[in-house]
Amino acid sequence: MDVAALDAELRRLHGDWSAAKRLSELHEASAALATDAGARRFRLTQAWIFALVAGEEPRIQRLEAALRGLGGL
Amino acid sequence: MFATPAFAAELEAVMRPVERARGLPNALYASPEALALERDKVFHSGWASIGFGADIPAPGDVAPIDWLGAPLLMARDRDGEVRVFENVCRHRGMILVEERRNFGGVIRCPYHSWCYSLDGKLRATPHVGGPGVNRHEAIDPAATGLTEVRSALFMDVVFVNLDGKAPDFADWSAGLRAQIGDFADRPIFHGGPESGFAFDLNTNWKLVVENNAESYHLPWVHPGLSAYSRLEDHYHLPERGGFSGQGTSVYAPDYGALPFPDFPALDGRWATAAEYPCFFPNTFFAVHRDHVWAGHLAPRAHDRTVERIEIYYTTEEAARSDRFAALRAENAKRWRSVLAEDVFVTEGMQRGRGAPGFAGGVFSPAMDAPTHAFHAWIAARLAA
């Protein structure tokens, strides 16, 4: 998924908490595109909260491990 | 108004033996200050009902409740346990949940997205230590979970004690348990949406309790009911503390060829008896061998009360199956019809409290003992 498509879908789903699972996926994808650790950590945090809301346990655990690795948890 | 010797004397008059007692004074029905007083001295300092387990039937279900100004949240956790929390984020006090719903994951504060698990634990504090840093030494998650309120579940009614100082619920409800213990700890099954109904009444909450407590009015207000359950078939429930009410010795509903199944192994007296205890301050129960119901009163103002009724059955099949659907609908219709007949008296008594010459009224020692027991209980709470 390219940056423009990612940005467009994030904007479209903004505020739609019923789409928390998809928003978590999108934020995690955007984190992979981040060029510095701070930005990656910020986006992974967003992905983590949406995963918590969606109750996506495997994703939560993966994101928490990533955040711990970046000093975010 | 309520900190005067005159008011104390009025309460004392209520607490006399029924033969010489007066009813609660008009001011306790006709002024907003009365409800504020009762909030502190009756509702928040004792145990009071706030809703039903049936309001949150599935794990993850939550229901926000404004309980006389206190924002509460009933939640059913992943293990099926009902808990009650203050419905506010521990961060900046934002209301967490605005409407009844299910959470598949955490409960998220809509302000800064602090997240709580359904057992109240603080699960996430995003960016609390700066962008992308989700912890801070000043915030101890173990000490910053949702504030849990003392709660108890009895016959699927959810009770809370907000000030945390009331006796244990088991002690508080001991009298009621002694009266209807045959029903208290049995599994009961809610009949679904068609088995609940509500009345939004232009009356003070106490008048609904009073009316439900006594059978004196039955021949005049419920002529259909009295056709098979006469006044002389009714009896006052014994005074055991914390409740009053009435029973009948001729419970025999005509449900046709497919009656509801009875609770198994009930004491023989329940073959024809049914009882209707009002559990002070704002809950009532109805127990029959084949179904029970519970009523919850939510005071909205000194002159407005929402009365909710939820009906439960003895088996899952009786409560949920299509086989009993028509009978459940008929049963709910019958009870709604009976309780609707009470509306004009509860609302009429409220308007009557505007009469300057009415000083609480008097009681019939023979017929009004359950009503007086409730008045005396309220007076004692307010006088304490």
Structural write-up:
The complex is a heterodimer of chains A (73) and B (384). Chain A is mainly α and 73 residues long. Chain A has one domain (3-69). Chain A contains four helices and no strands. Chain B has helices at residues 5-14, 27-30, 32-43, 169-172, 174-184, 205-213, 218-221, 223-226, 316-320, 325-340, 343-352, 369-383; strands spanning 48-52, 61-67, 70-76, 82-86, 101-102, 107-108, 115-116, 122-124, 150-154, 157-161, 189-190, 196-201, 234-236, 243-248, 274-279, 283-287, 291-301, 304-313. In chain B, the strands form four sheets. In chain B, strands 11, 12, 13, 14, 15, 16, 17 and 18 form an eight-stranded antiparallel beta sheet that branches. In chain B, α1 (5-14) runs antiparallel to α12 and α6 (205-213) runs antiparallel to α12. The model of chain B has no long low-confidence stretch (mean pLDDT 96). Chains A and B meet through α3 of A and loops of B.
List keywords for this structure.
heterodimer, A: 73 residues, mainly alpha, 4 helices, 77% helix, 0% strand, flat, B: 384 residues, alpha+beta, Rieske Iron-sulfur Protein, Naphthalene 1,2-dioxygenase Alpha Subunit, Chain A, domain 1, eight-stranded antiparallel beta sheet, four-stranded antiparallel beta sheet, 24% strand
